[in-house]
Each structure stands twice: as C-alpha cells, then as structure tokens.
Amino acid sequence: MVKICCIGAGYVGGPTMAVIALKCPSVEVVVVDISVNRIAAWNSDQLPIYEPGLDDAVKQCRGKNLLFSTDIEKHVSEADIVFVSVNTPTKTRGLGAGKASDLTYWESAARMIAEVSKSDKIVVEKSTVPVRTAEAIEKILTHNSKGINYQILSNPEFLAEGTAMQDLFNPDRVLIGGRETPEGRKAVQALKDVYAHWVPEDRILTTDLWSAELSKLAANAFLAQRISSINAISALCEATGANVSEVAYAVGKDSRVGPKFLNASVGFGGSSFQKDILNLVYISECNGLSAVANYWYQVIQMNDYQKNRFVNRVVASMFNTVSGKKIAVLGFAFKKDTGDTRETPAVDVCKGLLRDKATISIYDPQVTEDQIQRDLATNKFYWDRPVHLQPMSPTAMKQVSIAWDAYEAAKGAHGVCILTEWDEFKELDYRRIYNDMQKPAFVFDGRNVVDPEKLRAIGFIVYAIGKPLDSWLKNMPAVA
C-alpha cells in the first residue's frame, strides 16, 4: 500500500488529501499538523474549513484510509510520498520584506523530514513557492540524507475557493514538475499514478521543476491582471457613463479573451493573488528585470486603488463624512461560498471607514465574529501567521459590531456596503431594509449584486461599481 503524508492541514492540504483518499481507496493518506485544535476540528463534525462538498468527502474516508494526526514525525517517517503544504507568507522584515516569500516553515519541514526519514521519499511541493525553491530544499535534504534518497517534485495547486472540491474532482490540469533524470522521471510517474485514478492522462502535465514552480505564480498573476484590468475600466465607465457589465460582456465575447474573471468589483482577495504577484515582482527585481517587476506591481497598485476609490465614494456621497454614522457591511469573506477572509477587500474598506470614525455592523453567513475582529486588528502581511502570533485582544475594535443577519446589520444604518457576492444578498427584502434605515439611505454595491434601478425606485441612492452614476453621486464627486 502506498502511504502518503501531507504536512499542513489547511485550505490546500485538507481538501486535496480528502479527494486523494476518496479516489484512491488503496492509498493510505494521513494529514498532519502541529495545531492540536485544527486536527481536532478535522476529526469532528465541524470541519475547520467551509467548502461545498468537503464534508461528504471527509466523512466517507475518515477512519478508513484518511487520518488526521498531530503525530507528525511518525507519519512522515512511514510515508512514501510527503506533500508539504505549509504557509509561505510574505516576509514582514529583513531582505525582501513586503515582497519575498518567507520560507521559514518550508525549511523547518524539510529539516524535519531529513531528521525522521528512514527510507527513500518523494517530497512534493504543494505550497506556492518561489522559483528554484526545490533546489534549496534539495540541498537541505541531501546534506542531511544519512544515505536516504529524496526526489523533489513541484505539484502546485490551482484551486479556487468556493469550488475547490469541484476543481479537485475535475481539474483543468494537474501539473507535476521533476528533475529530468531517471530517478526524477520515476518519481514523476509515481505521482502521476496517484492522480491517474480519476484524472484523464491528457490533463496530467509534466514539466521541469522550475517551469512548474513558475507556472503557479504566472497563472495567478494572469488571473489577477484580468481583474485589475476590468476594475481600471470600471473607473472609466463611471466617469463616462458607460456600463462596465456591458463592456465586459462585449470584450468577453472575443474568443481570444473569453468571459472569465471580467467581473468588476471592489477588488480581488484570497490567499494567493497578492502574495504570488509580490513574489513575482521580487524575483524579477533580483534578476535585474525592473521593467518586468514594475509591470506586475501595477496589478497590485490597481487593486489598492479600487479599494480606496470605493471608500472615497462612500465618504464623499454621505456629505463627505461618515463620522458617527452606522454603515452596514454585507459580506466579509473575499468571495462567496467560502469562509476565507485572507486578503479580503472588506478589511481595507472597513479600516478606511473606521479611520473616518464610522460605526460598522458586519454580517457574513460563514465568517465568525472572532475571525472578523482578528482580521481588523491584524497588520498587513500578518494574516498568514499562526494564530498565536496574531493579536489576542481583537475586541478592542469598539466601533465594530457583528450582526446575525443582513436586516439587523442594516437597522438604523445610513448606508449599506455589499462586499461579498453571497447569493442571499440578491434576494433580500430591500424595501424592508430601506424602511429601517436613516434617510437618505445609501447602497454601495461593491460586487454588482443588486439591480440599481429597482433599488432607486424604492428610494435608495445607489452606487454600483462601473455603472452610470445617479445625479446625487455626480453632485458629490469622490477624489480617487
């Protein structure tokens, strides 16, 4: 029986290993993590991650060929294939701070593998890592090998949160990069054999190590670039009276462009886009490619601009101040169908409103009060650190309250900001919300969820990203 061990029970490791266990009943899969609470949650009825379809997959395999454990050294030493899916956060200090990836956790994992291994192993990079990380890991393992042979593979994940299980069951592609040696090709084949249980062979791509590592960064950069591009156009639409939805539809009909990732919004979020682009910028700078670095950094700058523009629009529309005014924030996750708040635009929007002394009431169907308070108290780039390194007293955010539903959040509010495209926000009784709000009542739709004309008919003053401005907003211009 092939034994697989995955170090890291997070958003990538947990779902990926659950699907491998489900599709490969003859493979023993163990997910290990240093966090006792996280492993306990994986072994409970309340999983630590919300992802449609994940519960069913875990419950079908858990206790059979899928185990969750804190006994890291035991399971790593017994494994044939070790996936490493640990955090690679952006460095907050030292060389490359604010751009480079911090590989501390990866290096610790590699040293531990070398220390406990008693048999040859295939070590698989599942985390998103800088190009040529495999070389560094290889050196650590080789210099501590004690006669054991290691093969390093790059197997980047291409999961979209909210559809992660669907992406795993039916992937566009599985990418495996390895050394172009007999041993390397044999290791690549071993991992291919695992995925071949359910992935068609023509979707399993094999490359050299460096191409696989760079492909993940490039893929995320291209996707984020599309979002920043349509968001740049949304600002121009507002200035000219064009409708960004119609522009995006027309552009997306070009088969060379396609319709995906052309939804204008308050900005992109998630654990990967910003981090991976900053990593790409740093690698470009280190290789003397300043023009390349500047090009990709502009994608980040446009995303920040979009969030700032949204906050400025809210403040300017409400007589140039939100001090002492209640603002309802509907949605805190960075996208619908996930509870993930990493790099969510909602953090920057809320902080911008709080700086102007607004009172904020937040409702999200999947994000806990503790997580929201923690996110608002956490400094930039620290969200990906272990919980014990994050603020322990988030309740200091006295201007923030958490509501149990959208109606409670909006009761007595001067304005409503829609920051996540949850389906339930399309079906709300906005007349009821309007009746319970201060007047004039504003809706600021950062996801183009609502029909602006229907809400205007109720009495709302509506701002929707990239849509023609109503007369009130034209008379209250925002400084971008």
UniProtKB/TrEMBL annotation:
* Gene Ontology biological-process entries: glycosaminoglycan biosynthetic process; UDP-glucuronate biosynthetic process
Question: Which GO molecular function annotation, any one, does this entry have?
Answer: UDP-glucose 6-dehydrogenase activity
Q: What are the EC numbers? A: 1.1.1.22
The domain of life for this entry's organism is Eukaryota
Q: Where is the UDP-glucose/GDP-mannose dehydrogenase C-terminal domain?
A: 328-452
The record's keywords, sorted A to Z, are:
NAD, Oxidoreductase
Listed name of the protein: UDP-glucose 6-dehydrogenase
| Organism expressing this protein natively | Ensete ventricosum (Abyssinian banana)
